[in-house]
Amino acid sequence: MFNFSKKIFLLSRYCFLFLLVIVGSFSFGQKINYSAGKISSNLNENLVLEDSVSLQIDNLSISTEKFVLNQENQSGYSESLSFLVEEKNFWGEAARLNFSNENITFKDVSFSLCPCFEKIWWIEASEISFSEDSESVNFKNAKLIIQDKTIGAWPKGSFPASSDRRSGFLLPEINISNKSGIDASIPYYFNLKKNLDATLEPRYISKRGFGISKELRYLTNTFDGVINSSILTNDKEYEDNYSNNSFRWSFNLIHSQAFEENSFFEIKYANVSDTFFLNDFGGDFNGTTKTLYSPQQLIFSNYSDNHKAVLKINAFKIIDPLGENQFQELPKLEFSWFGNNKLYNYGIDSLFSFYRKGGAFNNTSKEKLEDYHISPYLNFSTKRNSILAEVSAKINLSKFNLEASSFERIQPELRLKFSKNFVKKDSSKIDFLKPYLIFLLSPQKNQDGIPLLNSGISMRQNSFLINNLNGKNFLAEKKDLILGWLSETYNSKRKLMKFNFSKKISGANEIKILDKTFILPEPYNLDFSYLPDKKSTFNLNLKINDVKEFNILNFNFEKSFSVSSFKLNYFWAEDINSYLLNDSSKKKLNQLDAEFRFNGNYKYNFSSKIIYDIENSNLTNFVLGLEYENPGLKFGMALIHSKELDWVKVINESIYDDYNQESFRIYFELKGLGSLGRPIDNYIKRRTLN
Q1: What is the pLDDT averaged over residues 602-617?
Q2: Of 222-231, 510-519, 544-553, where does the model show the most confidence?
Q3: How confident is the model at residue 170 (pLDDT cuts 50, 70, 90)?
Q4: What is the dihedral of CA 41, 47, 48, 49, to 10 degrees?
Q5: Is the dihedral of CA 274, 278, 283, 288 positive or negative?
Q6: If 0-12 CB within 10 Å is exposed, 13-18 middle and 19+ buried, where does residue 492 land?
Q7: Which of the listed residues 192, 361, 486, 668 has the most CB atoms within 10 Å of its CB?
Q8: Would you call 22 helix, strand, or coil by DSSP?
Q9: What pairs with residue 302 in β-bridges?
């Protein structure tokens, strides 16, 4: 059974090692300032300072009743003193202090780095000394004390005395979960150069085996980057349940570089051994959050006042099988030229893409195609009699080359908007009222020969988009006339309310592509937000179709009280969340998120969060956290539950089983020193377990 007391004892040793590095990081006395109620000389012609003595030796402040100082050789001693190094928040008491221009020694010393300046946690030692020449801290008989209880001891040792980064052990991390058991790691930091460092993190996972994570960081004036990798040599849990191959790994590289003349280069490369790696280890193992794709990108970009050019190789490996039919861009070239004056702006957008289907773990397709787009546009606005007229015109020239055929398309787009502002002021607030009329025109085109390229219905649904689809391959027919009303209220400090309502007076409520028809959430669209005070917010988004049924309903409410806060978010959507347009299944989303926090008399904090899938009666995420905090330390623990489909079984066995993961997390912090684990709030803010 996991012995928590023993782990805390071991942790205290690492805390103490880290603390002593900080203690020795202040400078030696080259300049001495002092004040005292009485100043005299002894037989050795030393200054004797008595009665409320205060000394400042560089950044070290000393308070005592007597101090003997030799100004000639910059040395001295004192008994029964207190001290403070403000820059390092290093403070304490000592029975005696001996110092010279090169050495400082504390006898029978107790000290802390706690910003509370209270003895909540501290270090006691019979002696601590350090010298500028050797850049070292030497100590004897030291022990760490937390709230009058001795946690750990260290008899004798020596450590670097410099504020520079030093190689050494970092604080360990310990977690417990149903999938991994006890999960413990101890990172070691390598300070290789001023602009280069690395971290090596051995890791023991009781149900899985031994692993190791590595991180390399580099930084120069023109480029920077980070490389992360993780290896688990023999995962017993994964081998028993999913695969004969128990060797699991991840790799992640991000490199950014700047050139002259506003040119930039970026590499993003990530890969994992299997579908479940990020589910099992997530950010705890390699710093990468769970995603549909493992990106493998190369990007070159150039910008100026009148153009933008981007060359991208956008490959990936599918992690979540939901995206298995996506196309990789190998490569993709975007070029835009633009200009403007006071009345209008203009430009040309161009896109040249070369696609290859693939990326999924089980996908062997080599389907290829080419995609070319050129779109000149003109945006014009003018104001007459307080009525603002805005005109946007575009022509889309497209060509698609498939392995056995090609397809060309010319399709214009026109957007007209007329609006008028009304302003109402009084002593406490300002109201802005803006009625508007929008006309969208995009003629129907036969698009049967166009391939499905990473396309779906946009989740940014609103009535004002000329195209409701993602990507540039399909263009929706539009003959829409939309009437709307925008109202906003402000006081002297902030926005109080926003109300935006629109109704489609005429126009199609569907998109026809190939042999399928997709219903759009129109013609009614309502956005409402209300902020009655600084501690309360309410937002509502509603879209209704022709038969007066909801297509999208989303609202969230946030309220803060003196000692607590509450957040509630509800989202409902129908038939618009497909990853691909050729997905004929109904994709309903009916989800409730709730978050609650309680801060009791500062010491005890309670927090919880749930994400509940109402459509499938599934508790997808649950977090319950409890924290104790005082001015000097913080301790927290969290119980976390995460649930999703077991995609390995879905793909290989067509069995829709759940993949459940429960985890127990611990957080411990000595304020001013460091921490073990991650703050509980990190798990409340994130949407997934890892």
Answers
A1: 84
A2: 222-231
A3: confident
A4: 130
A5: positive
A6: exposed
A7: 668
A8: helix
A9: 263, 309
What is the domain partition of the chain in residue ranges?
4-164
Question: What stretches of 89-148 adopt beta strand conformation (E)?
Answer: 90-99, 103-112, 121-131, 136-146
Taking all residues of the chain, what is their mean pLDDT, rounded to a whole number? 79
Between 518 and 218, the more confident residue is 218
Pairing of strands 263-272, 196-205: unpaired
| Global confidence as pTM | 0.69
Structurally, at CATH architecture level, domain 4-164 sits in Sandwich (2.60)
Considering the chain, what percentage of its residues have pLDDT values greater than 90?
26
Residue 74 confidence (pLDDT) above 70: yes
Instruction: Tokens for 214, please give them.
Output: 């590595």
Tokens of 274: 């299997």
Does the pLDDT at position 300 exceed 90?
yes
Per-residue three-class SS string for 611-649: EEECCCCEEEEEEEEEEEECCCEEEEEEEEEEEEECHHH
Exposure b/e, 322-349, CB count within 10 A at least 16 = b: bbbbbbbbbbbbbbbeeeeeeeeeebeb
Nearest CA-CA partner of 668 in 1, 12, 6: 12
User: Among candidates 212, 206, 288, which has minimal Cα distance to 247?
Assistant: 212
Nearest residue to 472 via CA among 533, 420, 399? 399
Return the closest-CA partner of residue 457 out of 447, 467, 448, 449.
467
